[in-house]
Amino acid sequence: MSCLTPSQKKEVDRIARVCSQMVTAHATLRDMYRRRALLLDTFLLACSIAVCTLALADLHVIEDMLKLSADQARGHLAIFSSVLFLAILVQANVDWKGKADEHARACQSYGRVSLMTRGLDAKAGPAQQASLADLRAHYELVGQTSIPVPDGRFLGLKAVHLRKVSLSQCLDRYPNMSVRLVALVGKLRDTRAALRRSLTAPRVPGQGDGDQPEDDGGRCPR
Predict the structure, then answer these.
(1) Which end of the chain is more exposed for a tag (fewer CB within 10 A), N or C?
(2) Does 207 reside within a domain?
(3) pLDDT recorded at residue 2
(4) Dihedral sign, CA of 16, 21, 25, 27?
(5) pLDDT tens, position by position, 143-186
(6) What does DSSP assign to residue 31?
(7) Whole-number Å distance between alpha carbons of 164 and 158
(8) Could you say which of 106, 129, 149 is where a domain stops?
(9) How far is residue 54's CA from residue 66's CA, in Å, rounded to a whole number?
(10) Is residue 55 within 8 Å of 77, Cβ to Cβ?
(11) How far apart are CA 70 and CA 76, in angstroms?
């Protein structure tokens, strides 16, 4: 039986929910930056091979195999060299590998805090209060030291997490379902329901054009 008070239980549930969402967000950003870094590395390698081929190969080989004259080969060499230099500058400035590593560490940190929330109910007495205080401290520390989620991507990443939870629950009931097809049908259904609700909802008196609507917790009508 849980030794947490209702307010403490609510706080632990909130921390667990936020940590689960942040794990999904940082994992998504980690994979995105890793894919970008891989594509950029592949592009750099391809340009490097082209530059080396045009610079070191014999002109007769270039004319026979690539059907390029000496002037055309020098022109292509200049173009590939410029593109290679530009790609190196882009790689140094965007640092996608570094961002992927930071999001990976943030994902692991929030995952550890999420695991801490699952062990609180098993403790009792003074140990319970100490564990709750330790949980708060770890949660605040991770929030302060981890790389932030970009504001422009927050809603999209939240949607990714909620879709993942919904599909996971559906998969438990129907293990042979097509995940992509069910996800597409769910997007269309929920989008139609949200649009219908926004069009038919009565206007609240006192809300001007610049006022913000009240937050209903992101719940869509069923």
Answers:
(1) N
(2) no
(3) 53
(4) positive
(5) 999 999 999 999 999 999 999 999 999 999 999 999 999 999 98
(6) H
(7) 10
(8) 149
(9) 10
(10) yes
(11) 10
132 and 155, same domain (yes or no) = no
- CA–CA separation, 87 vs 73, rounded Å? 21
- Does residue 28 or residue 222 have the better pLDDT? 28
Do 91 and 155 lie in a common domain?
no
Question: Is residue 219 a part of any domain in this protein?
Answer: no
Spatial contact of 212 and 218, defined as CB atoms under 8 Å apart: no
Do 37 and 56 fall into the same domain?
Answer: yes
Q: Name the token pair of 154.
A: 């927050």
Tell me how far apart the alpha carbons of residues 149 and 30 are, in angstroms, rounded to a whole number: 11
**For residue 178, what are its two tokens?**
């097509």
The number of domains in the chain is 2
Planar angle of CA 163, 169, 170, nearest 5 degrees: 85
Higher per-residue confidence, 159 vs 59: 159
Tokens 């593109």 -> residue = 83
* pTM for the model: 0.77
Q: In whole angstroms, give the CA distance from residue 103 to residue 97.
A: 10
